[in-house]
Amino acid sequence: MKPAAFAYCAPRTLEEAISLLDEHGYDAKLLAGGQSLVPLMNLRLARPTVLVDINRVDGLAFVESGDEVVRIGAMTRHHTVATSSEIRGASPLLSHAAGHIGYRAIRHRGTLGGSLAHADPASELPCVAVTQSATVRVTGSAGERTIRADELFLAEMTTTLAPDEIVTSVAIPRIRPDEGWGFREFVRKVGDFAVVMAAALLRVADGRVASARLGLGGAEGTPRRVTEAEQALVGSVLGAETIEKAARVAAEAVEPTSDIHGSADYRRRLVHAMTRRALQDALGRLEAGHG
Amino acid sequence: MSYRKQPKLLGARVRRVEDPRFLMGKARYIEDIELPGMIDAAFVRSPFAHAEILSVDVSEALAVPGVIAALHGQDLSGRVKPTVCDAISDGWQSSEFPALAIDRVRYAGEAVAVIAADNRYLAEDGAALVDVDYEPLTPLASVEAAQEPTAPLLHKGWKGNYFYRDRHAGGDPDLAFSNADGVLEIELATRRHGGIPMEGRGCIAVYDPIERVLTLWSSTQIPHLIRSELANCLGLPENRVRVIAPDVGGGFGPKSHLNPEEVAACVLAMDTRRPVRWIEDRREHMLACFHSREHYHKARVAYSEEGEVLALSAEVTVDCGAYSVYPWTAALDPGMSLFIMPGPYRIRNFRCETLAVATNKCPYGAYRGVARSANCLTIERAMDAVADALGMDPVEVRKRNLIRDEEFPYTSVSGFVYDDTSLIESLDKVCAEADYEGMRERQRLAREKGRLLGIGVVTFIEQTAPAVDEGVPINFRYDSALVRLDPSGSATVQLGTHSHGQGHETTIAQIVADQLTIPLDQIRILYGDTQQTAQGIGTFASRTAVVAGGAAHIASGQVRDMLAERGAHLMEAAAEDVELVDGRVTVRGSGTRGLSVAEVARATYYHPELFPFGWSPLLEAAGTFDAGHGTYANASQIVLVEVDPETGAVEILEYHIVEDCGRMINPTIVEGQIHGGVAQGIGGAFFEELIYDEQGQLLTTSFMDYLIPGPTELPDFRISHLETPSPTSPNGIKGVGEGGAVAPYAIMAAAVQDAIRPIGNVFVNELPLTPERVLGFVDRAAGRTDREARRSG
Predict the structure, then answer these.
(1) Are A265 and B707 inside 8 Å of each other by CB?
(2) For residues B688 and B35, what is the distance between their CA atoms, to the nearest angstrom?
């Protein structure tokens, strides 16, 4: 478990990093937290010939609170996402989910941008990003662009990023005080990859669901919102029955993957259970009067 | 003469003297050893489960700058003997296990070639360039596939794909079955998993051409046994082979074998005249460190209306993988099943047939609680099934069948002579500790609220420090200790065993301290170097406290007597009038302070003129202890679990343990052993599974796919002790290393079944209880078919 030979570069600026990516194309890989890339390299499943370490690039780790969104730098560590009061204030859902990532040591290394770019279907942050319609700012040799989270993920471990593009920040919409959120994931052991996770964000007005967001991770190759279940919720009176119905719709809507951690049938049942529990948590938070 | 100790250390919660170096990161494992000129080895492993090797070309690898040497099977053929580890039985078929595959590979991950280079990175670069031409053969990836009539034979000259078949019978099972009030049949399966020590395997081989000595540093539990087989394979006399086991980061059985990689490393060292290091990575460990636990049992149980089990008839099939491993043979698990299955119960009619099937999987080796966990599962699940059939409580059915106190020593139907244990007392005590009645009431109340709480109960007896007089190539009845007092009065104890987490530097010192009445810090325990110790066997099978502890007790007792004799002579007293108290030899009742151990030792070594001519000036003794057929430890356990019927998750709410390992040397260490054993048992009960696909490819080669429990998955262990001294061992000690790992399989299966009882009756018979498997049992309990279960999702 030793990596094949590679060249190591540690640029100081974003421009330098992009030009290295531009020069080496698919032979280059960005090193952010290294929590996924380094094991893959050690197993020689990933064999980049150039490793571009962006840990010394200034200005990629920050938290910026705005009125509508909180903007988080791509090199912000999971631990910060989980514990920063600014982020927690803007999206307790994101903070809570980040706390489920791996173990403490992993959370101190792993980064928000790295997690999104890696696109592991069992990762928490992509699921929340999609659920909340986060936008991802990326910079490449052609300039800067913004990608909607749901348009970032193409397939398992595959994104729409060009080889010379670097995720620089993510904008997460603020969760409003009248919104309730829930996040549930099923893991076989604490800190392990989730088999299935569900994120829910609900707003109720005049006793009825005014808006609903329900995101799933782990069930399929990419995280996604389950619009069928969201539609089933909107306009309804939120309660055990409507929640159960939405969970059932979600379970029917997914086309789950199958692996040694769970068959497709099993994942479907977990979607049902995790969705219901996430929605119940959201309802609980609405009733308790704090989103 | 007599001796007294103040305070007596046997039984005291002495802090582990070895801990500082481990806790401060100062322990010295294989990988911490640096030798001048050392090079690193990497193995080329077969990607196929079963294939002919047509050719191996290492030329490209050798062209990599920094690559120093390459070896493949043909290079060793005729030069290095393959390991042949045969059980002695009419039902045995012999086979060869070469260090590097020669013309055929029999499991995915089998070593085919090895590359040595300046460092492991370059060695892996070279290994990737070795060109092996394979002709794939039909993979036999399960016991069913291996037993198909059309299956190719795995080894030369075989009549079928099995290493070993055997049977044992006692009493008159046929008569008992025909007279029984009821007969039930059960089938059980425990899936393949392993010991997974934190430190993987590893070795450094060094050849000294001047002394003509081969030294192998190995992360092993059994340095002496490694030396014997290494010398045999390489054609060297044993006095030219030295095996050193430094600090070992967990053994658990997987490190009680000779590894083919070690033999290859030795050849590389002899060829290159440079130290050759091989440090296993986790992927290699999962693929090629010998696996365990894959048992398939069928059992018929005859019982009376009163709940008495009258007869047991069983078929045991073990998937033993591709080769018979040294020193245990492939008969290890199946052979033991023939005798241990009746467990702690008064079963007088027993029949067992056993089969060690050869398949294209990693070979099968020892793991903490060899064969016991699967056999405990079968007999305990049989007791639960009888209880269910008769509507009895599982505790009650056990009480009716457990061997009663007045029956000890008890000769089991399979011929074991169980000495004193506390079977019924331990069950009563664990029921009291767990408040079993109260727990049942809590379960009832929880069920009313729709919660699925389940209770599991297990009682077992375990032969510790066992010996096997028939059928095995090496009978490990004894172990050794050399105790040497130096002129300053401090003692060095050299053991034939090893310590890799068990704390023997503390516990054996406690025993010796009591004999010599000197402080613990004046006793140094050494082990692990065959050049420094008397012939020994090693540490496994819950044996070291008994056999090495016994040997150290005996040897240090002899040294104590020498001290007393010499002290008496110096004080001009009769030997029978002196006593050893607190490190001093004194004349009993004289009121004088006498002589210190150091004074007597110094006089003995440096003033032989003070003693009669011919008295030995050496204050040392070698001791061995033979535990006969072992000591019998026992335990009873109760768990309370909760099952989530939507996800299949199981939460352990309470885990109560009452164990009896005889006299405890150090209760803290005993409890640590139980914690570790139960943790590994919980791993096997819920998490750990080495999954092969139909092509014989291992799907679980990292900790992303093979899950082991961590602190968050383990409950608080509520342990209490009973101490029924062994009548056979000095100090009444019994073994405790493995016991914790024996019961969790059975107890968790029982508890999960009990938890889902409100949904319906189902027999939980397959482990590990992954959430998906648990949901499968929930579905069956609910009478749901697979299709309905899908729809309910």
Answers:
(1) no
(2) 37
Instruction: DSSP letter for A177, please.
Output: T
Task: Indicate the residue among A144, A173, A202 that finishes a domain.
Answer: A173
B213: amino acid identity, one letter: V
Q: pTM for the complete prediction?
A: 0.96
B647·A190 Cβ contact <8 A: no
Is-contact A215 A127, C-beta < 8 A?
yes
Residues whose CB falls within 8 Å of the CB of residue B624, separated by 6 or more in sequence, listed in order: B478, B479, B480, B481, B534, B551, B554
pLDDT category of residue B592 using cuts at 50, 70 and 90: confident
pLDDT in tens, B536-556: 999 999 999 999 999 999 999
With contacts defined as CB-CB under 8 Å, which chain B residues touch A190?
A: 710, 712-713
pLDDT, tens digit, 9 for 90 and up, residues B251-274 = 999 999 999 999 999 999 999 999
Same-domain status, A222 and A147: no
Pick among 3.40.50.11320, 3.40.50.11270, 3.40.190.10, 3.30.365.10: CATH of B295-469+628-792: 3.30.365.10
DSSP 8-state secondary structure symbol assigned to residue B529: B
Residues in A 57-116 with any Cβ partner in B closer than 8 A: none
Q: Maximum distance among all alpha carbons in chain A?
A: 63
Smallest CA–CA distance, residue A184 to chain B, in Å, is 12
**Element (DSSP H or E) covering residue A159:** strand A158-159
Neighbouring-strand partners of residue B350: B170, B312
The whole-number pLDDT of residue B784 equals 81
- What local confidence, expressed as pLDDT, does residue A289 receive? 80
d(CA B243, CA B214): 8
Question: pLDDT band at residue B454, thresholds of 50, 70 and 90?
Answer: very high
Q: Which of B210, B181, B193, B303 is nearest to B254 (CA)?
A: B193
> Hey, are the CB atoms on A186 and B647 less than 8 Å from each other?
yes
CA B471 to each of CA B85, B164, B193: distance values in angstroms, whole numbers, following the listed order: 12, 11, 26
φ and ψ at residue B173, rounded to 5 degrees? -60, -40
User: With pLDDT > 70 as the criterion, what percentage of chain B qualifies?
Assistant: 98
Q: Cβ contacts (< 8 Å) between B124 and chain A: which residues? A: 2, 4, 44
Q: Are A117 and A81 in contact (CB under 8 A)?
A: no
How is domain B2-27+478-626 classified at the architecture level of CATH? 2-Layer Sandwich (3.30)
* Final residue of a structural domain among A142, A173, A204: A173
- The 8-class DSSP code of residue A5 comes to P
Phi, psi of B307 (to 5 degrees): 90, 15
CB B538 within 8 A of CB B530: no
Q: How confident is the model at residue B469 (pLDDT cuts 50, 70, 90)?
A: confident
Sorted by sequence, the CB contacts under 8 Å of residue B76 that are 6+ apart come out as: B98, B99, B100, B102, B264, B267
A93, with CB counted inside 10 A (0-12, 13-18, 19+), is buried
pLDDT tens string B4-16: 544 689 999 999 9
Whole domain around residue A107: which residue ranges? 63-173
ipTM summary value: 0.96
> Which residues in chain A are contacts of B691 at CB distance < 8 A?
260
The answer to whether B87 and B99 have CB atoms below 8 angstroms apart is no
Matching residue, tokens 């471990």? A157
Which pairing describes strands B717-722 and B650-660: parallel, antiparallel, or unpaired?
parallel
Give the three-class secondary structure for B655. Answer: strand
Residue B793, pLDDT score:
42
Which is nearest to B723 in space by CA: B632, B661, B630, B636? B661
Same domain, A152 and A95: yes
Record: fold of B33-137+201-248+255-288: Aldehyde Oxidoreductase; domain 3 (3.90.1170)
Domain boundaries, chain B: 2-27+478-626, 33-137+201-248+255-288, 295-469+628-792
